[in-house]
Amino acid sequence: MREVDLTELMDNAYASKWNLERKAAANGRDVQIFLHWTACPYGRYYPGYHVNIDDDGTIILTADLDETLSHTYMRNSGSIGLTLCCCYNATTDDPGPQPPTQIQIETMAKCIAVLSEALDIPIDKQHVLTHGEIADCEDGSPIYFDGKYGPKTDCQRWDLEVLWTDESPVFNPYDEEHRGGTILRGKGNFYKYKFYGHY
After folding, report:
1. If 135 and its partner were Cys, which of 23, 45, 54, 157 is the partner (CB 3.0–4.6 Å)?
2. Residue range of the domain that includes 162
3. Does the predicted TM-score (pTM) go above 0.90?
4. What is the pLDDT of residues 83-95, one digit of tens each?
């Protein structure tokens, strides 16, 4: 577990690319990136996610990106788990006393951009999803378990379905244009264009 910058994250992604692609192909898909929150206080990092992003934007790499970790049920092989360290005591109506900070959200978007570039995957709903989205199989992939477990069903996992921040009002979770995944993918594409000149 170590603090890294975006350049070091990209280097790790390049080094992990072949192994990630091999693992994803064994599951009949491309490499995917899943976006989470820890539901714990700021400053607490978890080894189940490849990348932990703290409230001040610090990036903590907990493992090489091609290691299979336990961040997303039935979807861990050939995927990367990014998480925001926040949302302690959150409910579906309230982000709790430690919501995502604006710098966390921007840092997650920058990480998405860097990983997309290094792994040669687009920033779209087939490749980059929140835990809430993948829990409802919104990428169109098969269901590998009995039922779904996201916001559209029993809401066991709804990470980033609504993108609260410490500086903005709550977004309507039923407004497709303001769901967390839509916003994070949009920001990721913005940074990808800013950094690399293309989407």
Report:
1. 157
2. 2-196
3. yes
4. 999 999 888 777 8
